């Protein structure tokens, strides 16, 4: 008889049993099946469809995208399908009982303290889909790496236990995030990646992959938070750098275009004119006319305010 996830006591712990990180071809499918262990499926790239079957009917179907995770906690019939190629990281955990195994830890305490895990345990359907799971990826891969050693070394087993504890702690943390907070997390990751690679090759596709979301979802986040699309944001940041070079250097326009991250001079001209209403030459002339040369400024125009005399 399977032990429900929400019925774990201080004497229960989770021990990794099966695992893989592999690629699936398009049109892969499996039979509906159920098991008495906890399963975690993380979408690393592409996408897969996760389905639940009850009474010989599909009652739930959802596309799982990069950075999203499915956690199956109860004895539910499920399967995955891959309409397109994808990569999945999967770990299954056996529910064990006792205190003398190196993997043993107080799972009940973790369930009682983690709001996100508590919500998963309270889920009556026996599964949870977690949207913001990108932070779990490295922990999952590290755990699989140490498990693949099949080591009897105490330190390796202890490291595995710590990674299991970290994994479920991160799952609880990720599941407690609201949709709004999740969006902010993704936006911050995207901005960091854009700023680090501003002068290199930037596409919506590679930014989305780095962040762990779909390109369409990334575009939606930028519209919601910046009222613009990703390419417009990138262009605005490249333009800021170009303006600074136009104002404070004598570099030729074509050199400025390439130095600012634009692929061609014509692209630079088009974007610059569209966003400023001026050509680069007109902007440079206007900027230099408005620039104050403090070394030759008329110091007579500036009057210093004398310090106040102290009160007697």
Describe this structure in words.
With 312 residues, the protein is of the alpha+beta class. The protein folds into three domains: 173 residues, Jelly Rolls; 50 residues; 64 residues, Arc Repressor Mutant, subunit A, CATH 1.10.10.60. Helix content is 43%, strand content 21%. The chain has eleven helices and nine strands. The protein has a five-stranded antiparallel sheet, with helices on one face. It has a four-stranded antiparallel sheet with strand order 2-7-4-5, with no helix packed on it. Strand 4 and strand 5 form a beta hairpin. Helix 2 packs across helix 4. The termini are far apart. 25% of the residues are buried. The C terminus is likely disordered.
- As for the CATH topology of the largest domain, it is Jelly Rolls
What series of H and E elements makes up the topology?
Answer: EEEEEEEEHHEHHHHHHHHH
CATH superfamily of the largest domain: Jelly Rolls
Integer average pLDDT:
84
Name of the top-level CATH class of the largest domain:
Mainly Beta
Structural class based on helices, strands and sheet pairing: alpha+beta
Report the radius of gyration as a whole number of Å: 28 Å
Q: Major sheet: size, sense and barrel closure?
A: 5 strands, antiparallel
Strand order of the largest sheet: 1-8-3-6-9
Query: Total number of helical segments?
Result: 11
Helix content: 40-55%
Query: Residue ranges: pLDDT <50 for 5 or more in a row?
Result: 294-310
CATH architecture title of the largest domain:
Sandwich
- State which percent range the strand residues make up: 15-25%
Shape: elongated
């Amino acid at each position: 008889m399977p032990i429900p996830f929400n019925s774990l006591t201080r004497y229960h712990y989770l021990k990794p049993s099966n695992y893989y990180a592999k690629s699936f071809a398009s049109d892969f499918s499996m039979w509906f099946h159920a098991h008495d262990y906890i399963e975690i499926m993380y979408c690393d790239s592409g996408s897969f469809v996760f389905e639940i079957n009850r009474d010989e009917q599909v009652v739930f179907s959802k596309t799982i995208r990069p950075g999203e995770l499915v956690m199956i906690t109860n004895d539910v019939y499920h399967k995955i399908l891959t309409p397109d190629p994808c990569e999945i990281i999967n770990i299954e955990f056996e529910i064990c009982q006792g205190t003398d195994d190196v993997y043993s830890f107080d799972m009940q305490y973790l369930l009682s303290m983690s709001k996100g895990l508590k919500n998963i345990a309270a889920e009556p359907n026996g599964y949870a889909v977690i949207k913001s799971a990108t932070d779990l990826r490295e922990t999952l891969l590290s755990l699989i790496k140490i498990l693949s050693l099949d080591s009897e070394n105490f330190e390796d087993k202890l490291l595995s236990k710590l990674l299991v504890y970290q994994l479920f702690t991160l799952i609880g943390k990720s599941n407690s995030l609201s949709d709004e907070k999740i969006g902010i997390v993704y936006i911050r990751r995207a901005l960091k990646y854009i700023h680090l690679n501003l002068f290199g090759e930037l596409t919506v596709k590679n930014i989305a992959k780095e962040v762990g979301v779909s390109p369409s979802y990334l575009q939606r986040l930028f519209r919601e938070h910046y009222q613009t699309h990703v390419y417009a944001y990138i262009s605005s940041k490249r333009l800021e750098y170009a303006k600074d070079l136009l104002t404070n250097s004598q570099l030729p326009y074509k050199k400025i275009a390439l130095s600012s991250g634009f692929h061609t001079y014509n692209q630079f001209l088009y974007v610059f004119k569209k966003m400023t209403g001026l050509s680069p030459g007109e902007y440079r002339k206007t900027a230099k006319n408005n620039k104050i040369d403090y070394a030759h400024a008329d110091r007579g125009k500036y009057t210093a305010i004398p310090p106040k005399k102290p009160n007697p």
